[in-house]
Design a protein that fits this description.
Layout (H helix, E strand, L loop, with lengths): L1 E3 L8 E3 L2 H22 L19 H14 L2 H12 L3 H27 L5 H12 L10 H28 L3 H31 L1 H14 L11 H8 L5 H15 L4 H9 L16
Antiparallel strand pairs: 1-2
Helix pairs in contact: 1-4, 1-7, 2-4, 2-9, 3-4, 4-7, 6-7, 6-8, 6-10, 7-8, 8-11
C-alpha cells in the first residue's frame, strides 16, 4: 500500500496498488456476501417492540442507550470524512458507505427505543440532537492505514460494550434490549472483521510500518464521543455503558494482535519507539 502525501498539509489518502486493491475488494465482497445472506436485519420486524415492559425500563437504560445513540448521530461526519480519505480504492469506499448505512440503523434503533419506551419524549430527543449536531467530529488520524487500525479497535471495544449490555438485558428478562444489542453487536463484530482484513493486507505490504501505526493508535486511542459529548467518560461510568482500559487491553487489544499474528514482544517494541505522550487513563475510568 503506497501512502501519498497531500499538498498544503491535507489528509493523506491511499494510492492503491493492484494486488492490494484486489485484496481489499475481496475483503469487501466477503463482508457484503455475509451481510446479505446472514446478517441483514429490519428495525421494524426484527425487534419485538410490543414486548416493551414499563415495569422494567429505567433511567439507567436511558442513560446507557443515550450515550450509544449520541455517538451514532455523528455518522454523517464519520462517513463524509472517511470517504474523502479512502476514495481512491473501490473496496474501501464501498465498505465505508455500507458501514455508514448499518451504523445509521443503529442510531435509529436506539432512538426508537428511547421514544417508544417513553424514556424520552420527541421534544427531549430533538433538544438532544441539537446539542450533538452543534459539534463536528474530526478524523483522529491522518492516514487510511491508521484509520483501519482505529476502526478495528473502536469496533472491538463497541462490540464488548454491547455484549455486556446484551447480557444485562437477558438477566433482566428484557427481550427488546436483548434483541437490539444482539443485532447491533453482530454488526460491530462484522465491521471489526473487515478492518482486521485490511490491516492483514497492510502487514504483508509493510509489517514494520503497520505495527508502528497500530502501536500509535493504541497509545492515542479514544472513542469518537470523547471530547465531543459533555461529561462523556463520567456518563459512561455512571450509566454502566463503558468498559475499563483493562478490559479494553485484555479483550480488544491482545485478541486483535493474536488474530493478526503480531507477537506481543514485537508490539511492545513498537510501543517503546513511540514518543512520550499522555498514557492511557487509569483502570477505574471508562474508555468506551
Amino acid at each position: 500500500m503506497i501512502h501519498v502525501a497531500g499538498q498544503n498539509g491535507e489528509k493523506v489518502g491511499w494510492k492503491v496498488a493492484e494486488t492490494l486493491r484486489d485484496g481489499v475488494y475481496r475483503a469487501y465482497l466477503d463482508f457484503v456476501e455475509t451481510a446479505e445472506k446472514k446478517r441483514r436485519w429490519n428495525i421494524f420486524d426484527d425487534i419485538p417492540w410490543g414486548a416493551i415492559d414499563p415495569e422494567i425500563v429505567s433511567e439507567e437504560n436511558a442513560r446507557a442507550i443515550e450515550i450509544f445513540c449520541s455517538e451514532e448521530l455523528y455518522v454523517p461526519d464519520y462517513s463524509a470524512k472517511g470517504l474523502a480519505l479512502v476514495r481512491p480504492g473501490f473496496g474501501l469506499t464501498w465498505f465505508q458507505m455500507s458501514w455508514a448505512q448499518e451504523e445509521a440503523r443503529h442510531g435509529l434503533v436506539f432512538r426508537e427505543y428511547l421514544t417508544r419506551s417513553g424514556l424520552r419524549t420527541d421534544a427531549q430527543f430533538a433538544a438532544f440532537e441539537a446539542k450533538i449536531f452543534g459539534h463536528a467530529w474530526e478524523l483522529p488520524f491522518a492516514t487510511a492505514r491508521q484509520m483501519a487500525c482505529y476502526g478495528a479497535l473502536q469496533e472491538g471495544a463497541t462490540f464488548i460494550a454491547y455484549k455486556a449490555q446484551r447480557a444485562m438485558a437477558r438477566a433482566a428478562e428484557d427481550p427488546v434490549l436483548a434483541a437490539i444489542f444482539h443485532l447491533v453487536g453482530r454488526d460491530e463484530a462484522a465491521h471489526g472483521g473487515f478492518y482486521r482484513a485490511v490491516i492483514g493486507l497492510e502487514l504483508l505490504e509493510d509489517r514494520a510500518g503497520t505495527v508502528a501505526d497500530l502501536a500509535r493508535v493504541v497509545t492515542e486511542f479514544k472513542m469518537p464521543g470523547d471530547g465531543l459529548i459533555a461529561d462523556y467518560r463520567e456518563r459512561l461510568k455512571s450509566s454502566g455503558a463503558g468498559i475499563s482500559p483493562r478490559t479494553f487491553v485484555e479483550h480488544v487489544v491482545w485478541p486483535l494482535l493474536t488474530m493478526l499474528n503480531i507477537e506481543r514482544r514485537e508490539f511492545k517494541q513498537a510501543m517503546k519507539l513511540r514518543p512520550a505522550i499522555e498514557p492511557i487513563p487509569a483502570a477505574e475510568e471508562s474508555v468506551v
